[in-house]
Write a structure and sequence with these properties.
single chain, Rossmann fold, 3 domains, four-stranded parallel β-sheet, 15 helices, globular, binds 1,3-dihydroxyacetonephosphate, binds iron/sulfur cluster
Length: 302
């Protein structure tokens, strides 16, 4: 492993490359990355970097967003097949139908979406900024795509707007089971429950804190509590335990593994740095249209 890390470090210098990794990547990938974070943080880093090559250890929509925000950089995906199923759970036709029926509606698109969906959207959001952006929009009606659970969660805090939902979901978060959560709570009565808003309402209603991956990490790190039940993908455990070695973490269910995120490995990072394969390529037409909602997100989230 030391050998792989050394080669990665050397290639990074030679090629002026930077490695970005999401909190759901394997721990050894997070350990070697230059920047680790949630989707919002990583999009901002991708926009601001002076590196010539961005190696994005994440899933396809993250690499696409980095390329859209930074067209002159070469963006490489360590795992070409790493994709987010939810990103495909709304269609351009769904959006067109709602726009025809409600011309006043703003289409708010979770960043976990294809570049094509972003092209027909008014603004992007991540779980870290969604309520703030939904509130800031002048429109009274919002179509939220593709995640039904995140959309419904936001609609509870943004009560002066009418929401049109879509039936997309994250298969990992949607699999959290209420009975299992209740039995974890019974087994650890002092534990604080922290959940990602991609989880279903039956999980969120038992949660003490609901937020993005970085929100959960901050909440846990700032908390005086010693035990936590975590309802999100298990990759977050690396940062949680690194920052909080004296705290205990329990996870709900054996299924909380995003297999796409786990396709990123030190070996695959080294390979793309060597070969520069798996480059993210987006046509100018799509890139220019998809840039508009992404830039609007960055503006409104300030
Ligand atoms: P955040 O890291 O933005 O909370 O997103 C979670 C997620 O599912 C990324 O795919
Ligand atoms: Fe997509 Fe869910 Fe994996 Fe995140 S955890 S990348 S939303 S499948």
């Amino acid at each position: 492993m030391d050998n792989i890390i050394q080669k990665i470090e050397q290639l990074k210098k030679e090629k002026n490359a930077v490695i970005l990794a999401h909190y759901y990547c394997p721990g050894d990938v997070q350990a070697l990355a230059d920047h680790v974070g949630d989707s919002f943080y990583l999009a901002k880093v991708a926009k601001g970097t002076s590196a010539d090559i961005i190696v994005f250890a994440g899933v396809k929509f993250m690499g696409e967003s980095a390329k859209i925000l930074n067209p002159d950089k070469k963006v490489l995906m360590p795992a070409a097949d790493a994709d987010c199923p939810m990103a495909h759970m709304a269609t351009v036709e769904d959006v067109a139908k709602v726009r025809a029926q409600y011309p006043d509606a703003a289409v708010v698109c979770y960043i976990n979406s294809t570049a094509e969906l972003k092209c027909v959207s008014d603004v992007c959001v991540t779980s870290a900024n969604a309520p703030k952006i939904a509130k800031a929009l002048p429109n009274k009606r919002i179509m939220f795509i593709p995640d039904d659970n995140l959309g419904k969660h936001i609609s509870k805090t943004v009560t002066d707007k009418e929401f049109i939902f879509n039936n997309g979901y994250c298969p990992i978060h949607a699999a959290f089971d209420e009975e299992e959560l209740l039995s974890e709570k019974a087994a650890h009565p002092d534990a604080v429950v922290c959940s990602h808003p991609e989880s279903r309402e039956c999980i969120l209603k038992h949660s003490d804190y609901i937020g993005s991956t970085s929100g959960i990490i901050k909440y846990v790190t700032d908390s005086d509590a010693k035990e936590f039940i975590i309802c999100t993908e298990v990759g977050i455990d690396y940062e949680l335990t690194t920052k909080n070695p004296d705290k205990k973490f329990y996870y709900v269910g054996a299924k909380c593994v995003c297999k796409d995120m786990k396709l990123n490995t030190p070996e695959s990072i080294l390979r793309v740095l060597e070969t520069e394969e798996n480059e993210v390529l987006i046509s100018d037409e799509i890139r220019e249209k998809a840039l508009i909602p992404l830039e609007r997100m960055l503006e409104l989230a300030e």
